[in-house]
Write a structure and sequence with these properties.
14 helices, 5-stranded antiparallel β-sheet, Uridine Diphospho-n-acetylenolpyruvylglucosamine Reductase, domain 3, alpha+beta, Vanillyl-alcohol Oxidase, Chain A, domain 3, 443 residues, Uridine Diphospho-n-acetylenolpyruvylglucosamine Reductase, domain 2, globular, 8-stranded antiparallel β-sheet, single chain
């Protein structure tokens, strides 16, 4: 039995395999195809959609992990697909290197993080797919193919960078890296309306900027991260305990209280914002980007044109306030530069991301449906690893290169070896392409 991180999704595959080489992956895929089984790949289980579920063959890439090659002079690193972002970051740091931008969770396998378009924050900084230079994957017929950004025909590369696992099994990735750097991260409560009114200035002033806000609190918690000279100064035992309390222990206590006494949630929202206070951390970039997450939740997240961020935050807060909806988790707002992956959620536009969470066991369906409606009204695209209810017919018009991606999918997996029920929902059935005009499907 496989279960995702939040404990909401489970499946019982006919076979669960842990290949350690691309050759073993290829054999497993061919055997599954011959047996008529759907192949899916499990990483850390941090997706909140049924993207992994299968009753056929489930592959775990935890044995297909590690840094395979480091080209320090060229600023490149080749890494096996099952390598966690945390392990990759620590190994890069030993070589004096780093990824330019990362998300706020680093336990995912690199292949899974790419599959769902993990982004991080930074107005001029690339999402994770935009840092990819080459992808190696095993396709439905067992072939091992490589696609690179500098290929004369980069169609497969642009499709493979964000593919929701629909093109094959990513066995290795080549990434662009930069010299290791230290960040000074400052978390500070500030009046939310002031922050929303000055988003452009804040994004321009700091290489990495994000904010967190509760629906019933007037203040937001802003997080600015700036590159500084000198060595990192990791927090001591007291600083580590404070960070653990803020992001996990204290938060869980407050959200449990809110779950037990929903009428107290507005008060708790304001209390947790005040308790957060101002804190500073000076450390290596990867330790500033990511924080441990122990509080279990479910989530919806939407990529938006950057100019829509403030309006969407205000609209979601207004919806919650009108209904006194019990939301005891903060909204998160982040920003990235455009990317060029066919299904990259920041494809072709400077983007903002608004994420809305619900604590485990708390109601979320009505809230997430409202967030979806608000986001779609502002040009939103759902995060591929977060909850939404859109189908391929509705998603197709949101991506300018949708048809190009589907052409690659039809060529690599015409029988749908990698298509489970969720992939069929969001990308269409094998061999059927939902056109960008959202009209009739074409064969």
């Amino acid at each position: 039995m496989w279960e995702n991180w939040s404990g909401e999704l489970r499946c019982a595959p006919a076979r669960t395999l842990r290949p350690s080489t691309a050759g073993e992956v290829a054999r497993a895929v061919v055997e599954a195809r011959e047996a008529g089984q759907v192949v899916r790949v499990a990483g850390a289980g941090h997706s909140f959609t049924p993207v992994v579920l299968t009753d056929g063959t489930l592959l775990s890439l935890d044995r297909l992990a590690g840094v395979l090659d480091v080209d320090r002079a060229g600023g490149r690193v080749r890494v096996a697909g099952g390598t966690t972002i945390n392990a990759l970051s620590r190994e890069l740091d030993r070589h004096g290197l780093a990824l330019e931008n990362l998300g706020d969770i680093d336990v995912q396998a690199i292949a899974g993080a790419l599959a769902t378009s993990t982004h991080g924050t930074g107005g001029a900084k690339p999402s994770l797919p935009q840092q990819v230079e080459a992808v190696e994957l095993v396709t439905a017929d067992g072939s091992v193919v490589r696609a690179a950004r500098d290929d004369a025909d980069d169609g497969l590369f642009r499709a493979a960078c964000v593919a929701v696992g629909a093109l094959g099994v990513v066995t290795a990735v080549e990434l662009r890296v930069v010299p290791a750097f230290t960040l000074r991260r400052v978390d500070r409560p500030e009046p939310l309306e002031d922050v929303l009114d000055s988003l452009d200035e804040r994004i321009a002033a700091h290489p990495h900027f994000e904010l967190f806000c509760f629906p019933y609190a007037r203040d937001a918690l802003t997080r600015t991260s700036d590159v500084v000279d000198g060595p990192p100064r990791p927090p001591g035992p007291w600083g580590q305990r404070r960070e653990t309390w803020t992001t996990n222990t204290g938060l869980e206590l407050l959200v449990r209280l809110g779950a037990r006494f929903p009428s107290s949630i507005p008060l708790l929202n304001r209390l947790v914002t005040r308790l957060a206070g101002t804190s500073t951390k000076v450390d290596r970039s990867f330790r500033c980007f990511a924080s441990p997450r122990h509080v279990r939740f479910t989530e919806t997240e939407w990529s938006l044109p950057r100019a829509a961020a403030a309006d969407v935050v205000r609209a979601v807060r207004a919806w919650c306030d009108e209904r006194r909806y019990p939301v005891n988790f903060p909204f998160e707002v982040r920003f990235v530069a455009p990317d060029d992956a066919d299904l990259g959620t920041a494809h072709g536009r400077a983007s903002a991301y608004v994420a809305v969470h619900a604590y485990r066991g708390m109601p979320f369906e009505e809230l997430f449906a409202a967030v979806q409606a608000i986001a779609l009204a502002h040009g939103g695209r759902p995060h591929w690893g977060k909850r939404h209810a859109l189908t391929a017919r509705e998603l197709a018009p949101l991506y300018p290169r949708w048809d190009a991606f589907q052409a690659q999918r039809a060529a690599l997996d015409p029988e749908g070896v990698f298509t489970n029920a969720h992939v069929a929902q969001v990308l269409g059935a094998p061999g059927v392409v939902e056109t960008r005009q959202a009209g009739a499907a074409t064969m």
